[in-house]
Amino acid sequence: MGGYDTDEPDYESPHQVGDEVLVTGILTVKNSVGGTESIDHDGVVCKIEKAFWDYETGWRYNGRILSEADIGRARKQSLSSYDAEHYRREYPDQPHLAESAERAAAEYDPSKAYFCEHDISPVPQPQVR
Fold it and tell me: Does residue 69 lie within any of the structural domains?
């Protein structure tokens, strides 16, 4: 069970696909040219779409940011000033860079989020009186 350099988890995932979680730690999205961007935030609710084990960090998740306001903040922080034309102009002998930037721009979705189990806090529950 588990251990170094294996895909077999050491323990069950604390969260399941479909769970809504409050990410208060590191939250990343892909930027508009395909790189990874860490988003500055005060806590973002995400819905888990995929869970997988990483023997170095524990459980990792792919999810969706749920709030339009949070998606807007992620978009603002992950839009790159570089585009395919920049790569064509600056690196004319490396067309794969422009092609990669074009693919990334077509697939760009700042609502797609990436985080791990250690970045999740309990979602606050309404107080019952």
Answer: yes
The answer to whether residue 78 is domain-embedded is: yes
CB 29 within 8 A of CB 38: no
Stretch among 14-28, 54-68, 113-127 having the lowest mean pLDDT: 113-127
Contact 56, 28 (CB under 8 A): no
* Predicted local distance difference test score (pLDDT) of residue 69: 98
pTM of the prediction? 0.83
Asked whether residue 62 is assigned to any structural domain, the reply reads yes
Distance from the first to the final alpha carbon of the chain: 45
As a residue count, the chain comes to: 129
Q: What is the rounded distance in angstroms from the CA atom of residue 99 to the CA atom of residue 119?
A: 33
Assess if residue 110 is contained within a domain.
yes
